[in-house]
Amino acid sequence: MINKIKNFINLNNLDGYIVPKNDEFFTEYSKTNKLEIVAKFTGSAGFIIILKNGNHLFVDGRYTIQAERQSGKKFNIHEIPNVWPKDILKNYKTLNIGFDPKLFTKDTLKLYFENSCNLFPINSDLFKDVTEKINKHNLVYSINSSIAGESSTSKIKRLKKIIERKRIDNLFISASENVCWLLNIRGKDLPNSPVVNFQAILTSSKKVILFGNKKKLNTIKKKLNKKITFFEKDKFFEVLRSLKGKTFCIDGKTCSVLNENLINSKFIIKKRIDPIYDLKAVKNKIEIKNMIDAHIQDGVAVTKFLYWIKNSNIKNLDEIKVEKKLESFRKRSKNFLYPSFNTIAGSGPNGAIIHYRSNKKSNRKLNKDHLLLVDSGGQYKWGTTDVTRTISFNKPNKKIKELYTRVLKGHIAVATSKIDKIKNGNNLDKLARRSLNSINLDYRHGTGHGVGFFMNVHEGPQSISKNNFVKLKKGMIVSNEPGFYLENKFGIRIENLVYIDGNNKNLFFKNLTFAPLEKDLIEESLLTKNEKNYILNYHLETYSKISPFLNNKERRWLVKLI
Questions:
Q1: Residue 308 backbone class (left: φ over 0; alpha: ψ -120 to 50; beta: rest)
Q2: Domain CATH number, residue 94
Q3: What's the pLDDT tens digit per position in 82-122?
Q4: Are 350 and 319 in contact (CB under 8 A)?
Q5: Is residue 235 domain-shared with residue 288, that is, in the same domain?
Q6: What angle do CA 188, 109, 245 make, to 5 degrees?
Q7: Regarding beta strands 506-511 and 496-503, do their DSSP bridges make them parallel or antiparallel, or are they unpaired?
Q8: Residue 236 sits in which domain range?
Q9: CA–CA separation, 156 vs 385, rounded Å?
Q10: Per-residue pLDDT tens for 358-387?
Q11: 315 and 453 share one domain
Q12: What is the pTM of this model?
């Protein structure tokens, strides 16, 4: 594929070409991973610049080790934000760089390449042969208000009020997940998320126009609002020309260069964050209830898995077998659909790769002297889960116990924080790192991400991270997952999903995830009385919720952890 791209560069009189991870819908988990095709890199974020005399792969801190291992022989690896593409390109005379305008936003291009090269949009899909093979017509289905907690009619009315208040005539909903939320529809266009690839316009006349494959809608047309009209996506410009009004609101993070240029040919553009993100982030009571139910089912599967692996002859096990076994426990639930992301099962040094994915080449046998980090989740009817546990098979040394306990202290600090005082994810992130920072240690990822309701496992705008200042509100769901990683040695991470409950004067987290912690790794002398009480109460609650679904042996094992 590298040679194909370089031939394309030469034929078009270019000096280079940019290859992103995302598809035209800017989703995290697209079916075609272009970075894997070009560079054998399997991470969920990053992009490539192919130049005539060099290949460059840009990733964030989660993926630097992984990128070096998978792609380091043929690519120069750069960590964003330490190194930007413009930092590399400024070393050359002005270059002519090609890109696909369907796959980039103007905001992204400005951030990465501003004043460093000449950018040329080229409407040619170099990956067409690959994408066409896997682009099957997956049907769409609707979820009613008894599941979603609110009808699509009600959601549209709320959205209308927002755009009227902001004096916006038309709104382009470019993120598929937001279209799915608004219309209470789901599909299977993505490998790990029940998202269907549609885009929509909320017009000045307050109608919804839906763009996508019309064949996918046949099963639910009658169930959708009568004011919704449907067009194939290639009719986008034709529809635009028929719309009234002066202004058009677009989200700069998900509206492609191509679509922005088309809209700008007739309308005055107002760039705003799609208001659906804020609406979607606050889950209603029914969504929370469904998420609680899904997490009980998931907690049973994870607990059964932990009992199994702690009582197995691990000499016969490897990372891939572990992944398959964990999924087999989840499949026992009639409501389990598929994993919410590719399971991470990293033994020993592989656990230090933050978003590790085992394959035949990297697969390691388990070792009683090595920690095992397992990060996994499921899509259920109706809910999305994500949980990480670090597992020990032998008496760990004092240093490892200290590190695990400091990660746990960070986890507890987040879980027990007063949200009304903390206010945002930036402040929570500081709390999570405090114990590790006290001995000059840290980790290279955020402490938590937002999570969707039967949707994407990664969802904004809220997160627990250094640069997130979004106000935390009742109903929001985030992960709580501090960690520590020693390259070529081991990885430690503890993750639960939590939701915000209470009232405006007293907001607090409640755990969604219930599965036992690794007590063999806890150094109790480092814990305060309150932290010890938290662990005790967490295990009591886990036992109360999970034990009715366990057999006698599993139940006896679980009670010993209290």
A1: alpha
A2: 3.40.350.10
A3: 999 999 998 888 899 999 999 999 999 999 998 899 999 99
A4: yes
A5: no
A6: 75
A7: antiparallel
A8: 141-279
A9: 27
A10: 999 999 999 999 999 999 999 999 999 999
A11: yes
A12: 0.93
